[in-house]
Amino acid sequence: MVGGEGMELSPSIVVTKGHGEAIYLFLKEKKWLDSEKQPKDLENGFLAIPVNENCPSSEDEIIIYDNNQRIEIRIEKVNTASSPPSVEPHARLRASITKWLETSLVNDDFSPLQSREKAIMELLSKLPTKWEKLGDLILLPETAFSSDKWTSIISQENQLSLWKCVAEALKVERIGKQKHVSDDIIRSSQAQLLLGDSSWVELLDFGVKFGFDACKVMYSSGNVTERHRIGNIDLKGETIVDCYAGIGYYTLPMLVRGEAELVHACELNQHSISALQWGAKANNVADRLIIHKGDNTLTMPKLEGVADRCHLGLLPSSQSVWKLAIACLKEKGGILHIHMNVDEEKIEQWIDSTISLLQKYTEELKRNYDLKVNHLEKVKWFSPRVRHVVLDVEFTRCK
């Protein structure tokens, strides 16, 4: 029954406003909340919160306490307005996919013992909760839409409409899906483009332009704070060796924002090199960049004694080239930026062992350096209990 323009009678939980938040969160947790309708203020300090068909129809079945006292509620049909389109992407995705399922599911898509509504709820429970947004391209995780139930209903005929539905909900033009990173030496990306004609992406990050093929190389949005930190360092007059340059995650910020005099970029992956060359040209820093293509264990020895600092951005560990990096430092010394994945409770122990190992390498190289930890940056959680950290170590020639 319509109760005015944009209004209709909806089953609602009526409660005093003082208990409104507690009831709202309770209904949301129980999945009884009708998210397509707005709560409504009533007279005498009451609030009506719309509920869906899963909510019990009897007040006696809805039991919630606040400060050890049961909250009094009543169920009524109240004139409520539809909620405006959600600005929250997960809610938009769920609403959009619900409509797609309602029009796409046929009787063969669920068992006789399972109702259509329960089949839809099961599929919705498997929707992705995380993804990576790269400009107008969304990269879904490898597990997205990959459960047995989802696989059984996605066909050659309907998959295009599904990806268009996802793109519209997430407000992008292109959709891709992550794949396992290859075990080859260059850790090739194996992302798959699902919607769109090209996987080339161009981004502007804190004044630095990046361009790359998202299906051929990796781009880590989660390292943004470290990219900004490195770019904030005054590098005027410095020569730097970036031992794992990639598409220029750190090379380009060091050149563009740090204003490094010269960066030697070591990289093996030709797709990454092409992206780095594009970025250098787009940022007008190509004249201050030298790219050394190939295995860095072969290219770094040719850079002995040239660097004011070396950047070691490989995860989970760059330890295999630490000695080569020290050799790249100038005779007067310099700084190493060492990335590593470390158990949270072992970080201090790792710092001590790292300094000891670096000291051993300096002695083997017959470099007379004093070592000092300048900074430890905790970039992000890599996995439960494991941190991505960056250790800045300064090497100073002993007097």
Layout of secondary structure:
Elements: E1 7-16, H1 20-30, E2 40-41, E3 46-50, E4 65-66, E5 69-70, E6 74-81, H2 89-104, H3 116-124, E7 132-134, E8 137-140, H4 148-153, H5 159-170, E9 174-177, E10 192-195, E11 200-205, E12 208-213, H6 224-232, E13 239-242, H7 251-256, E14 262-267, H8 270-282, E15 289-293, H9 296-299, E16 309-312, H10 322-328, E17 333-343, H11 347-364, E18 369-383, E19 386-397
Helix pairs in contact: 2-5
State the separation between the terminal residues, measured CA to CA.
89 Å
Along the chain, the helix and strand elements come as EHEEEEEHHEEHHEEEEHEHEHEHEHEHEE
CATH class of the largest domain: Alpha Beta
Which homologous superfamily in CATH is the superfamily of the largest domain?
Answer: Vaccinia Virus protein VP39
As for the number of domains, it is: 3
